[in-house]
Design brief:
This protein is of the alpha/beta class. Helices cover about 40% and strands about 20% of the residues. It contains 11 helices and 12 strands. The strands form 2 sheets. A 6-stranded mixed beta sheet has the order 2-1-3-5-6-4, sandwiched between helices. Strand 1, helix 1 and strand 2 form a beta-alpha-beta unit. It starts with 8 loop residues before the first strand and ends with a helix.
Length: about 300
């Protein structure tokens, strides 16, 4: 095969902390192969490199010089990356957070596929649920995207709590400006809010393999609640396990993980991915990981 006969190549990556367990590289590379692309997806793990978000500009410059088509951005860089970009999509601007940067013609263009990713997973995974009042845990970059998705999907009132109270206040104010007065509030009394809620969504990293635990006392859960996660490693967090044990409807973080990747793949390659195929691939990886964990 001559060089001219080789399939087109695409180089992408993910910048974040503690991302070795990410399934995003495999999702992109397999879908690329299915579409006849030589897609290579690299992990740029700040923890492994011993650096922090202050190195973002240097990493973006290096990616541009090496011919990357784009980068996904995750914790703790979704907001720190904003001042380093030339343009923002309407979604990214409204959310004040970026999870996908397209590098094209000397420009860095920020997008957000977390919002659409969560919304699609929510529609599929929790259809017909009551949505008058919902409690959201976490107001960071992913939390902003999920909050916008929840209000867009018909949640009447969203109570937001965060370890940084000012961040919860700021997100609630931004949501009210966009969706209407009273649609979002900063949570002041978590037990009372959960007692009155239809559902709870965890947008904190608590529950990840490297941050075990639950983001709220499980004693606050009750069977009538639905409980959603954005953490997907492990797919069944301690919170979801506790919720399922008492009969709550639940949504794991897999749908958001896949559908944000669907959006990013389209931005990186200019091609329409097969979302159902990517969902099947994610399910295969999750099943293999669960089997390996049981065998360990």
């Amino acid at each position: 095969m001559s060089h001219r006969d080789l399939p087109p190549s695409v180089l992408c990556g993910l910048i974040g902390s503690g991302i070795q367990a990410s399934r995003t590289p495999a999702l992109h590379e397999r879908e690329g192969a299915e579409q006849g692309l030589r897609l290579v997806y690299r992990l740029i793990d700040l923890d492994r490199l011993g650096i922090g978000p202050e190195a973002l500009e240097e990493l973006l410059t290096a990616a541009e010089r090496m011919g990357f088509a784009g980068l996904n951005i995750t914790f703790p860089c979704k907001q720190a990356v904003l001042p380093l970009l030339h343009e923002l999509s309407p979604d990214a601007r409204a959310l004040g957070a970026v999870n996908t940067v397209v590098l094209r013609d000397g420009k860095r263009i920020g997008h957000n596929t977390d919002c659409s990713g969560f919304a699609e997973g929510f529609r599929r995974g929790l259809p017909g649920t009551a949505r008058a009042r919902v409690v959201q845990l976490g107001a960071g970059g992913a939390g902003a995207a999920v909050a916008h998705a929840l209000l867009s999907e018909g949640v009447g009132r969203l109570a937001i709590t965060d370890t940084d109270a000012a961040r919860a206040e700021a997100l609630a104010a931004d949501l009210c400006a966009r969706f209407g007065a009273g649609r979002a509030v900063a949570c002041r009394d978590l037990p009372a809010e959960v007692a009155a809620a239809d559902g709870v969504v965890n947008c904190t990293p608590v529950g990840m393999a490297k941050l075990p635990g639950t983001p709220l006392p499980v004693a606050l859960l009750r069977p009538a609640l639905w409980v959603a996660e954005i953490v997907y490693f492990p797919l069944e967090t301690e919170l979801l396990r506790a919720a399922r044990a008492i009969g709550c409807r639940t949504l794991d973080g897999g749908g958001m993980a896949v559908f944000q990747a669907v959006g990013a793949f389209r931005l990186f390659t200019g091609r329409a991915p097969d979302a159902e195929r990517m969902l099947r691939h994610f399910a295969e990886m999750s099943a293999a990981a669960a089997t390996a964990q049981r065998a360990a």
